[in-house]
Protein: L-threonylcarbamoyladenylate synthase
Organism: Pseudarthrobacter phenanthrenivorans
Amino acid sequence: MTTTYDCTIDDERARGLEHAQRAISEKKCVVLPTDTVYGIGADAFSPQAVTMLLVSKGRSRTMPPPVLIPRINALDGLATDVSADARKLAEAFWPGGLTLILHAQPSLDWDLGETKGTVALRMPADDVALELLTLTGPLAVSSANRTGQAPAQTAAAARDQLAESVEVYLEGGPRPLAGEAGVPSTIVDATGPRLRVVRNGAVSLDELRAHVPDVLGLGEIPMAGEEPVTGPAAAGNGAAEDATDDAGRAASSGSSAVTGIEAEPAGPAGNQQP
């Protein structure tokens, strides 16, 4: 039976997190608040649970969900060949509105969809989300809405769209926590020789370049004589494409970027990210 918990009340929050943890262990879906929009989450290591998440949203395997993590040191357990520049951005903007598309650890037993060997990772700046992630471990999370519909800014709005396909709804109040509504995380493809923005969002290009000066902006190409950009963003598939499904919100707000759970991204690893 579907249950909603008001996480602004301490006792109810504790009960809700316990129920959500149990639901995740049973391969069911939960709705949780993030710092951008509400997300629908499932066990990232359960193909059954990830399939249920995609079905609940009306999405195919070509738009795999990103993965939310509870701490920065989870990065190396899920991704490989993480560059020094990618680490600089993670340290500067996590927890927060930055999603990194990285090469997935090949040894991991998971199936997020057609990711082309990549994974989109983010650490959200939301206490309820981080507490749940600490209890469950990494979660596949996409924006809590049916594909093509507006991302939910409350658990009640998510329930209107997802109904009984979700076991637990954690209500944490209106989202986003700060900034303009409808602005998703910035997505950076870190699988090539240079970092490249594939969706504009909460973290500006100037902010990124304050830490990594040669980050390529959305649509920028290397100067003549420079090594060409490779990886999902350049190929037009994989994590970068997935990043647009959850970029749904970005699309609805007029953004040309691909997405993650926030709005619906398009592309394998980053497509459905919040």
The first helix runs from residue 10 to 25.
